[in-house]
């Protein structure tokens, strides 16, 4: 999905270091030739100027604001550098792209390179059907494993049969990153005499102080069901070990929802309801009205993702900052992921040209173009010039999350049906129609049923 918001500009992850853009005139073992379709072996030509006259059909969902600006600028630069390669760009809304891509990849003339949502219903099913080129040989030729750490690559990795998510071969590269953290109204905290929390205990103590001072501590509009996934994921990440969350989030075998740690995380949300830290109509208010209210001065904290950076920065200026969830102990942990990755059709007659294009739009220079257009670059983030104060906070938080391997997956990645399952279950939990134990029973049933049938 485009960004996690279901508006989320998909959208997530800074690498500690960065390799150079395109390795010129290099041929590296392990990929297809420059004259045919994708094959398991052969040479990769990384000098796109030597690929002859090529037309690449490119499908993307970069149609809004800074997303549109960055891809148009990069496409122009790519064609100026490689006039032998013509880009036939088709831009679509995220929903339209999701709807048409499956049919197109099954046909005889699919796009060469395109954005494919990294979840199981899209990328996973395409991998299972043999419709995507495994990019491992290109990753070797271009140094993508140095550019993108494993904590990033896992979000576009599958076993070649498409059953296992989060490990295996690389099938896509994203341009942007995202992480769920806490937007803070600094003015509200100052008026309440609250210092910026440094630990999870301090954060929870600040909620009590804010409530006592007559302030709404936490802004959440959960009418759409999915927003509470991010709030629960934030509480879970402070109570459950990251590797255990990754098993659950990627739908891998060996995990369990029914643990004391997950129970404590679920109980945290119930406690926040009981103590009045959310508004009374938490399940009756939509996501957009909630964050828009926050931007106009309602509430002290908003647990949400970096896709709101541009809107909140524009509306609130220096009054708002963004921080990773204060850790319960040790390193931080936060829900996060990537923007929609770029992939290559297994039917493309020009996979080397397609890979050269992906390399160009994810290079160090490309990250600078993304940053100046108010996007969160997924690589070399800390070195980029953020457009404003909030952007600097977002870039720093994201860079820290990647450097410390702090990112854990979105929980609705787990199974093809988990998004609906956990969304409805969280509404019941917040409405106190289900206990934490009943909530976890519901998730366990979906997760274990999928895992057992997916072996």
Number of strands: 14
Helix content: 40-55%
Radius of gyration: 22 Å
Mean pLDDT: 89
Oligomerization status of the protein chains: single chain
Uncertain segments: 1-40
Distance between the termini: 26 Å
What is the tally of helical segments?
18
Q: Give the overall form.
A: globular
Structural class, from secondary structure content? alpha/beta
Sketch the major β-sheet. Answer: 6 strands, mixed
Report the sheet-strand fraction: 5-15%
Key structural traits:
single chain, four-stranded mixed beta sheet, alpha/beta, 455 residues, globular, six-stranded mixed beta sheet
Can you give me a brief rundown of this structure?
The protein is of the alpha/beta class and 455 residues long. It has 18 helices and 14 strands.
What does this structure look like?
The chain is of the alpha/beta class and 455 residues long. It is built from 18 helices and 14 strands. The protein has helices at 65-81, 94-106, 120-128, 136-142, 144-147, 150-153, 186-192, 200-212, 227-237, 242-249, 260-274, 287-295, 309-316, 351-361, 364-372, 389-403, 418-430, 436-453, and strands spanning 27-29, 43-45, 54-60, 85-91, 113-115, 157-158, 169-170, 177-185, 218-219, 301-305, 320-323, 334-338, 342-344, 407-408. The strands form four sheets. Strands 8, 9, 10, 11, 12 and 14 form a six-stranded mixed β-sheet that branches. The chain has a four-stranded mixed β-sheet with strand order 4-3-5-13. Strand 3, helix 1 and strand 4 (85-91) form a beta-alpha-beta unit. Helix 9 packs across helix 11 (260-274), helix 13 (309-316) packs antiparallel against helix 16 (389-403) and helix 17 (418-430) packs antiparallel against helix 18 (436-453). The radius of gyration is 22 Å and the shape is globular. Residues 1-40 have low confidence and may be disordered.
